[in-house]
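Hi F.,

I've been meaning to write this up properly since the lab meeting, where we talked about keeping a consistent format for the predictions we share between groups. The idea is simple: the sequence comes first, exactly as it goes in, then the structure tokens exactly as they come out, then a line or two of notes. No screenshots and no reformatting. I'm using this chain as the first example so we have something concrete to point to.
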Amino acid sequence: MDIKKAIEHYNYGISHDIFSEPVTSYARLAVDALEKQIAKKPNPDTKFYGFGFCPTCNACFMDNSTNYCGNCGQKLDLK
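Output, unedited:
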């Protein structure tokens, strides 16, 4: 199962109330973690002097220094 299918599966369960609490909160954590594995490009308007900003949490990072945000774990598309 790919990440997008897993997200759809969990979101269906959350929105159709087939998960009971606390399973719903665990499903939300799983969705949040899965979504961070989908690479996002930094906002081009925020790049300056070799630095970029995470599109999820806006933390500053060095361009091409890592594929993940050191603050929130968002996968970054730096290509």
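Notes:
Strands lie at 51-53, 60-62.
The longest strand covers residues 51-53.

If this format works for you, I'll send the rest the same way.

G.
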